[in-house]
Target: Adenine DNA glycosylase
Amino acid sequence: MTASPSSSPDVSPEVSREVSRDLTPDASAGPSHALHSPVIAWFEQHARDLPWRRPEAGPWGVMVSEFMLQQTPVSRVLPVYEQWLARWPRPADLAAEAPGEAVRAWGRLGYPRRALRLHGAAAAITERHGGDVPREHAQLLALPGVGEYTAAAVASFAYGQRHAVLDTNVRRVFARAATGVEYPPNATTAAERRLARELLPGDEATAARWAAASMELGALVCTAKSPDCARCPVAGLCAWRLAGKPAHDGPPRRGQTYAGTDRQVRGKLLAVLREAVGPVPQAVLDTVWNEPVQRARALDGLVSDGLVEPLDGGLYRLPQTRPGA
DNA sequence: GATGCGTGGTC
DNA sequence: TGACCAAGCAT
Model:
């Protein structure tokens, strides 16, 4: 392994995140691996026809889909994605809107801060990159809402570059097929990043297909709950299966509590504001949750996150003004 | 590194 | 039926 995983140029000063998180190896040819051909061949046969995979989606379509797919299933993303791209076909179109419109159009996809960040990313793309989604991993990573995964995914899927794209699907496939355990650790480890780099095909175009193919395999066959090994193209090579599918051992995977949390209250408050045409009186918001302390905390949180804008007279609405404007 | 952050489908 | 799960990010 080379000492510096990236040669990323043009890292602007405001990029505080470490460039070393870029999983792209230097240009040295990666080794061919026994998993590559069967997984890629399977992908050619079984890949879903998703709108963001079509050529007309372009880098912006890929980026929008990646934001929406962060922790949200494909089936729920599809209709919102279509509406979004029809309404805002270019980053500048979205950037010209009030951020509250993005939050409203986000609908019930969940984690609405993603809508705000996508709006912010569109604004940054418009201001800093002439309206074109940047190609450089470091420039993508500097956009709001874009982390290591999304930067690699856009660079790979939209621009065909060679990056290790390490999402939850790929992590699970690698854990099973290569490492021989049922589930990857809670947090992505250095060992997983190293493995992903080692498995990355040396050829750029092959690496990009490998990224999409290994992710699709995890999504359709090597699923978390019930992997369908009978339909897996690498069942004969899978370390986990060959070891007799040992049960998960180690710390339990992090669960997600929801009922009774601030998150639930925030969701109810924002649902009211999304449906409302104009500003909403506090008294109406008060009806969504009967515990006043938690209700107030949730509303304050939404305001400080920029998801809700307080007006005079105890009125609230989705944000019409840009943060800092 | 551990937490907080929405929503709905599944078994 | 209540966990568990779904192409993560920011702090």
Residues 1-21 of chain A have pLDDT under 50 and may be disordered. Chain A has two domains: 30-249, 262-317. The radius of gyration of chain A is 21 Å. The beta strands of chain A are 280-281, 309-311, 315-317.
